[in-house]
Amino acid sequence: MQEDIEQRTVALSVRATKLTGKLLAKVFAAVVRKIQKEHQKELTPHGKQSVKKLMGHGVSVNSLPSKGVDPSRQAER
Known about the structure:
This protein is mostly helical and 77 residues long. It is 68% helix and 0% strand. It has helices spanning 2-43, 51-56, 71-74. The chain is rod-shaped, with a radius of gyration of 28 Å.
């Protein structure tokens, strides 16, 4: 009887350790993703930039939005 209880206790401990390890791995992965996201956010330029700098960042200069212009009237210009 005592041996059976000890085996079950060891089995439960092993399962809990595996679960804790998996949970720790998930939390660690989430932290790494958050750090990478913040790092990428810091690298993204903000504010006014010249066309030359925009082209250096790989942004298409043809796709700049025109604010306040009706698309149907844009062809008239």
